[in-house]
Design a protein that fits this description.
- It is a single chain.
- With 222 residues, the protein is mainly alpha-helical.
- The chain has a domain of 104 residues.
- Helices cover 45% and strands 5% of the residues.
- It contains eight helices and four strands.
- The termini are far apart.
Length: 222
């Protein structure tokens, strides 16, 4: 792995963040990560707890959920993304995380790292970046509607002190869509793996047509 930080990583690490989070990312997650896939090495709670405690005799870090809490902070500023089958309410020991800023972004997205702002009423996710983030996160249904964008904006408009790059805003939106797809209340008609996916009207029509054909065929046989 190349030890040199990308500009995106450096910018994120310089944002308001606890030093424990910086240690966890730089020495716990980034070391040994795969730059091609941006995947970290498998999480080892014991190793990370020892790393964070250092020579502190009081050992303030004792549990995996404390690691999860730090990972959540890293996720919030875009340094970490969770694959679709993980959540921080459960253990991630032995699992791998995604480090989206580990590799230099493609030239099309370079400018998205340079502009930082609070959420605005006219904000929209970058469609090309969302597609890439959705693929990275394993999101099957990559469609979203105005209501989902509106809910996301309404939430962050209430937090004007939160300032992120355009890249990070779209990344956050992709993470939000992932969580909605995994939510039990998501209105769906089909489940693929662990994700819930809205079935397009055309697919539903095909299913109904199939039933009618079968019914008609049965009637003719009788």
């Amino acid at each position: 792995m190349d030890n040199q930080l990308t500009q995106a990583e450096l910018a994120a690490l310089q944002s308001p963040l606890s030093n424990d989070c910086r240690v966890l990312y730089l020495l716990g997650l980034r070391v040994g990560a795969n730059t091609a896939t941006t995947s970290s090495c498998p999480i080892d709670y014991k190793q990370l707890l020892d790393l964070l405690n250092g020579d502190n005799k009081e050992s303030p870090y004792q549990r995996g959920r404390q690691i999860n809490s730090l990972v959540k902070q890293l996720e919030q500023i875009g340094l970490v993304a969770l694959p679709y089958d993980l959540d921080l309410e459960h253990t991630i020991n032995g699992k791998t995380l995604l480090l989206p800023l580990l590799s230099e972004p493609q030239s099309d997205f370079d400018q998205l790292h340079t502009r930082h702002s609070a959420m605005s009423t006219n904000w929209l996710p970058n469609k090309a970046l969302f597609e890439e983030m959705a693929t990275l996160l394993g999101i099957i249904d990559k469609t979203y509607d105005d209501n989902e964008v509106g809910e996301f904006k309404a939430y962050w408009l209430g937090r004007p002190s939160s300032v992120f790059s355009e890249f990070q805003w779209t990344q956050k939106f992709a993470n939000n869509i992932k969580r909605k797809r995994l939510a039990s209340g998501f209105g769906t008609t089909k489940v693929i793996g662990t994700q819930q996916v809205k079935v397009a009207a055309g697919i539903e029509a095909d299913d109904n047509a199939k039933k009618l054909v079968e019914k008609y065929a049965a009637t003719k046989k009788s």
